[in-house]
Amino acid sequence: MKIDRLLSIVILLMNRPLIQAKELADMFEVSVRTIYRDIDSINGAGIPVVTYQGANGGIGLMEGYRLDRNVLTERELADIFTALQSVSSYGGGEHNLLMQKISSVIPPSKSHAFRSKTTQLIVDFSPWGLQGPLEERLALLKEALEESTVVAFDYVSADSQISHRIVEPYTLVHKGAGWYLYGFCTERQDFRLFKLLRMKSLVKGTQSFERLDIPLQDLPWTEGWKEPLNTQTVVLHFSAEGRHLAEDYFDCEELEADGNGGYTVRLAYAENNWLYGFLLSFGTVVEVLEPEPVRRRLAGLAAEIAAKYNAEVMPK
């Protein structure tokens, strides 16, 4: 993404007196024109980068200017490196070059300590097994985000309704166990959150858009979830046979031991199809104690499932 490329260019200029625009373009797999736009952005950030003409010319820092290598501490560089490792775990191979550049500014005498800091925390977003189409969607959306280009796709809603969407992409969000796209939907004329697994026939359009400066620090995709009318307290009881599942999915401080090897847990959930699918995934080791409407709905779903399979095994 652009911010990674800009930081990589700055680090290269810190370590090399001159570098050709064509070399940078080949290195980052972009056009020379894009590199010159990047140089303008770096200049706008207060770092004087100039172009020297002639056979031995190139791009370099203004003569006499020295960028303070201590502008970031080693701990801060290690934190950036760790964050890049996490992103690179899922279709983020473009970050590898930036990680190499960050490593290159660490003095050899401190490289061992730096490696130690960058392996203290590892966040791997990739799923178990093959990544498949989801990785392709992420790669396409990253391109559209960088180029400020609209994307089009068919979206399957939670109630299985399919609608065609044209969206101005703003942010890729990894929340819970899934990837989402936050963007402006031209059909709804508002910002929406789209789950990548529900996208079909995703394509990058040719129409560009002007990205608005929207604040994301308030996590707009969580506002609906936090509405009191959308949530209710669900009380679950895990039997002793399901103890390991409870410990896998919930914080130990949320679990109340029942004295028989099982647990009770009380949490606020939005009542929707996701909740019932989540509860059914535990099979027979969990029972919903409250509220009663959720118990009845779950019992109905379980009966429908049982009836479907019983019909298949009944003798003709």
From TrEMBL:
The keyword Lipoprotein belongs to this UniProt entry's keyword annotation: no
Keyword line: Transcription, Transcription regulation
Domain annotation HTH deoR-type: ranges: 2-57
Keyword Signal included in the entry's annotation: no
Molecular function GO terms recorded: DNA-binding transcription factor activity
InterPro entries noted in UniProt: CBASS_pafABC_assoc_protein, DeoR_HTH, HTH_11, PafC-like, WCX_dom, WH-like_DNA-bd_sf, WH_DNA-bd_sf, WYL_dom
PANTHER family listed in its UniProt record: PTHR34580, WYL DOMAIN-CONTAINING PROTEIN (PTHR34580:SF8)
Protein name: Transcriptional regulator
Organism: Paenibacillus graminis
